[in-house]
Structure formats: C-alpha cells, structure tokens
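Pilot study result, target chain (309 residues):
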Amino acid sequence: MEFNHKTVLLNETVELLNINPNGIYVDATAGGGGLSYKVASNLSKKGKLICIDQDPDAILACKEKLKDFENVDIVNDNFSNIYNIVHNLGFDSVDGVAFDLGVSSYQLDAAQRGFSYKKEALLDMRMSKQGQSAYDVVNFLGQDELKKIISEYGEERYASKIAFKIVKAREKKLIETTTELAEIVKNAIPAFSRREGGNPARRTFQAIRIYVNDELENLKKSLEDAFKVLKKGGRIVAITFHSLEDKIVKKKMQNWCKGCVCPSDFPICVCGRNPSACMVIKKAIKPSVEETKENTRSRSAKLRVCEKI
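Predicted structure:
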C-alpha cells in the first residue's frame, strides 16, 4: 500500500517549529509520514518524535517511512487524545506540536475510502474506518439535520434544497455510492450556480466528512490539550485548508495571546490576566505560487504558529 500525500508548506512548518535536536515533538496528523520524516531528521538520538494518526492505512505507511528512526513512537489514535498519548508515553511536556489538518491526498485518491465525489465507491469517509459512515448519515438522518450539517460544515447556500433532494432520492432507493450522492447534489443546485466555483458536490462532501469524523470538535479539544502539554518556549504550528478549521485555530491562538480583558473604562486592571502565548507570525502564511502550481490542493492552505510564554 502506498500512502501518497504531499505535505503542504513542509519547509516552512519545520523552520517555524524551531526544532531543538534534543527536544520532544508531536506530529498530531502524521499521515504518510512526510512531515514526521523531516522532523525526525532534525533530531538527535536524544530527541523524540511522537506520530499520531487515526487512519490505520496512514499508520502502516508511517511505520514504513520512519523504520530507520529509533526515537519515534507511532500511535494509532485520534489527535483529540494527544494529552493522554503524551503522558502514557512517559512525557510531561513537549517542545512542539504540528497539525496538518483536513483530508489527505491518499484518502481522496483511494476510491475505496469513499471520500471523493470524483470517483465511484461506497459512501464511507471514515478516517478511522470505525463508527458511523457517510452512508449512515445520508440515508438515516432527518432532513432538518442534513440541512444543518450541509449548511454549517459545508457553508452551502443550497443546503435546504440538497437535503430535500437527498431525502426524496432515498425514499425510492438507499444512496449507496459517492457518484449517486454527487449527482443528487448536482441536480439540487441551480444551473447558473453549478457553473461557479468548481464541482457542485464539493461543499456537501466536505460537510458530511467533517460530521462523520467530528473534525471541528476534535480540533478544538486537540488544540487545547496540545497547549497544556507544551513547554514554555514551545510552539504549535497548524496548517488549515478551509475557513472553519482556520477560524478555530486563529481564535484559539488569539485567545492564548490575549492579556487584560477588563473594560476599557476601568482605571486599572482587575482581571489579572496575562498572555500565555505570542504569535510568531502575525498573518497566516500561504503557499508560494510555485507550490500551488505543483500541488493544486495546496491553494487554500494557511499556516499559523504561536509560542507559549
């Protein structure tokens, strides 16, 4: 099995982690091990790298890619459990955590995983290969809940029409494949809108994938717990690929960096709040023109980084 995934903003991520060769680092979304390999290559034998991924296919690929490194622990788990993972491995704190969020190139390209609206496969979309699948969501959730998922997680303005069409279609026959769902979505969207902004099914598939994997809630918990185990001077680097992820990362980092929250008309501070982090870069870093040409999936990427103080 070949887990193809090209890490976006790879060199920038490694540079901004500010790696201490003897430090302890976490790749919270290890995937096929591209970023992990780069980080491990910058560590001495005293350094340590913890690789986490919930996808069993990714874990197999990561183990193969990192087989020559003795100072790497590879854990098949959800990154929302990062606090327990770090402590269960015997560490109280770490020097840096990297997040490369969203769906991997492998998951999109492997038709059998059921993530892609471009390739026919059974509806699945489970990163962990466990629990509720996209098939269950599409065929058994109510119309109002489907509308809410597609609207909130897909930011789709035609969510109501799409949910209605899905329910009508499954009354005749359960929706089994990715291409069936993509066609239903396409027919729910007015012709003039189908000509705008790429494949009309993209936002709906994103929404269902996020819901199936509980991506946003897991991200919130993982960021909080990563910050808890981060040493002073340690950094969190996060790469996002859509606005919902980026909004969460940006808000968390801004909150850590916020000092006094007293009303502006108070003569003195009474809250006693001090910043617990600082932004290493003020604005998100985006891929270069060259990188977006080589890897079109990198176009929407944003990298943010903060340092614990």
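One observation from the pilot: The chain has a mean pLDDT of 93. A full batch analysis is planned for the follow-on phase.
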